Amino acid sequence: MFEFPDNSYGTVYTTLCAPASSTIRENNIYNVDLLRVGLWKVAETRNAEVLAFLKSENMPYEIIYYETAEEQLEAFNNGSVDVISSVSLSPVANSRIVAQFAPRPYYFASIKAIRTSKHPEALTIPIVAMTANAFVKDVQDALDAGMNAHIAKPINMETPKNTLASCIILNTNKIKEKICAEILYIRDCRLDFFQILNGV
């Protein structure tokens, strides 16, 4: 469980990063004839923020989408694009931030980083928001960021206990369903489950 204080927990921004060696800087990005922007295709929320920024600033641009973050970074490093999207929390190596926009609470970015990481429990570990921000939009934003539940302050200790218990039970059921599905698949394929376990 993550505890978020009543006061601001910090802000993270969507950014455009240019190579450190590039002549594009924060004070001249608006003067570029055509800005080639490399975006990671699946990062839909961040991509929408980038497009909204470019349109609001009336900047001439060309969007180039990449299937993976690795392809996006490679295009950045070999000069195929002028800038790529990033976040101020973890700017791209050997780069400089040339535009910063779309502020979001820090913990939303943290949760998205956890959920999109390659850790084996990234998608299953229960994460619960505990915050004084309790409007309907705050709750929905927390869920959209990848949290399992939202608890509004002030609280009594039974609330987080019950919430965590429900998240753990739900997670356990999902794991059981996955195991059952895999066993059924093995059975359908007429494979010996114990042979597979033994690596035969």
The helicity comes to 25-40%
Instruction: Assign the structural class, choosing from mainly alpha, mainly beta, alpha/beta, alpha+beta, or little secondary structure.
Output: alpha/beta
Biggest sheet statistics: 5 strands, mixed
Total strands: the figure is 8
Low-confidence stretches: 1-9, 189-200
- Coarse shape: elongated
What is the averaged pLDDT score? 79
- How many helix segments? 6
- What fraction strand? 15-25%
Radius of gyration: 22 Å
CATH architecture of the largest domain: 3-Layer(aba) Sandwich
CATH fold category name of the largest domain: D-Maltodextrin-Binding Protein, domain 2
Lateral strand order in the biggest sheet = 4-3-5-2-6
CATH class of the largest domain: Alpha Beta
How many distinct folded domains? 2
Distance between the termini: 41 Å
Helix and strand run = EEEHEHEEHEHEHH
What is the CATH H-level superfamily of the largest domain? Periplasmic binding protein-like II
Describe, in short, the structure shown.
The chain has helices at 44-56, 69-78, 106-115, 136-144, 158-188, 193-197, and strands spanning 2-3, 11-19, 35-40, 61-66, 83-87, 95-105, 128-131, 149-152. By secondary structure, the chain is an alpha/beta fold.
Describe the protein's architecture and organization.
This protein is an alpha/beta fold. The model is unreliable at 1-9 and 189-200 (pLDDT under 50). A 5-stranded mixed sheet has the order 4-3-5-2-6, with helices on both faces. Strands 1-7-8 form a 3-stranded parallel sheet, sandwiched between helices. The chain has helices spanning 44-56, 69-78, 106-115, 136-144, 158-188, 193-197, and strands spanning 2-3, 11-19, 35-40, 61-66, 83-87, 95-105, 128-131, 149-152. β3 (35-40), α1 (44-56) and β4 (61-66) form a beta-alpha-beta unit. The longest helix has 31 residues, at 158-188. The chain folds into 2 domains: 2-6 and 107-170, Rossmann fold, CATH 3.40.50; 13-104, D-Maltodextrin-Binding Protein, domain 2 (3-Layer(aba) Sandwich), CATH 3.40.190.
